[in-house]
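Deliverable D2.4 — example input (structure tokens):
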């Protein structure tokens, strides 16, 4: 396994035309001398057919083509070829569960999902597939790049007083310390009780975390808005600010779905252009 100070696991599907997660990585992370990317293709379980070997051979061939395309995209973007690893994993459970297990087993700093990964998560949110990925314990930050837009920059880091939100800020500081991306700390205030002192306290703590990672103060911005609908306010700011990513903390107790918080769920369903970062 390749290793580096920043190690990312990128899930690859057998659709080489839909490498949205890898495209996001190539545009978003420009300092590449301390990053390793493991490209993971989960080979599906063969169906109950007479010749499962033929099915597996075909799946491996399609996966190899997608893995090669993804690796080429990263190398062309400036990632050293020796820092890009291709990996096949034969599924014994659902694909999301295998991905979750690999993320924990490999001690990755982040998981990046594209369009297919977004579909997996939507199935989990809506309860239409098994919650294996939750039970396995996917506790690394997840970046979901369903339809990443070009020429976007910066992270909109959405704050509340949950530890998950500050975990998200800590991850952003770690991942982007050597990058040039601006980071906007964003707080949605209750219009009936605009507690600016509370927002200032949240910002102070978050700024301190970012500075501990070496993020320059010139890259850190703060913004508050008043809204009774936090998800709608975040979506509006994400569109207006043309951010590359929106970060939130997952809140709520795990009761069998991946995202219990209504804000996270709404963003997962409706955010386009920007990637969504969810910290568990």
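Example output (designed residues):
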């Amino acid at each position: 396994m390749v290793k580096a100070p920043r190690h990312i696991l990128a899930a690859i599907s057998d659709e080489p035309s839909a490498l949205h997660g890898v495209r996001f990585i190539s545009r978003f992370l420009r300092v590449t001398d301390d990053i390793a990317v493991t490209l993971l293709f989960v080979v599906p379980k063969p169906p109950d057919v007479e010749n499962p070997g033929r099915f597996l051979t075909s799946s491996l061939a399609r996966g190899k083509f997608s893995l090669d395309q993804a690796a080429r995209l990263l190398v062309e973007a400036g990632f050293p070829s020796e820092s890009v690893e291709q990996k096949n994993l034969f599924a014994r459970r659902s694909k999301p569960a295998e991905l979750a297990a690999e993320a924990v087993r490999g001690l990755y700093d982040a998981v990046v999902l594209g369009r297919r990964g977004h579909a997996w998560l939507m199935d989990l949110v809506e309860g239409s597939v098994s919650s294996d990925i939750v039970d396995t314990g996917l506790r690394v930050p997840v970046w979901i790049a369903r339809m990443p837009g070009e020429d976007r920059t910066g992270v909109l880091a959405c704050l509340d007083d949950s530890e998950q939100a500050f975990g998200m800020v800590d991850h952003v500081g770690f991942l982007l310390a050597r990058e040039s991306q601006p980071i906007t700390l964003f707080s949605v205030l209750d219009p009936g009780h605009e507690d600016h002192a509370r927002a200032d306290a949240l910002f102070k703590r978050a700024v301190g975390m970012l500075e501990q990672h070496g993020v320059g103060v010139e890259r850190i911005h703060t913004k508050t808005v008043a809204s009774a609908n936090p998800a709608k306010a975040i979506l509006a700011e994400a569109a207006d600010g043309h951010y590359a990513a929106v970060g939130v903390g997952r809140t709520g107790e795990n009761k069998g779905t991946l995202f219990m918080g209504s804000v996270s769920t709404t963003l997962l369903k409706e955010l386009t252009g920007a990637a969504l970062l969810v910290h568990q």
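The CA atoms of residues 99 and 105 lie 10 Å apart.
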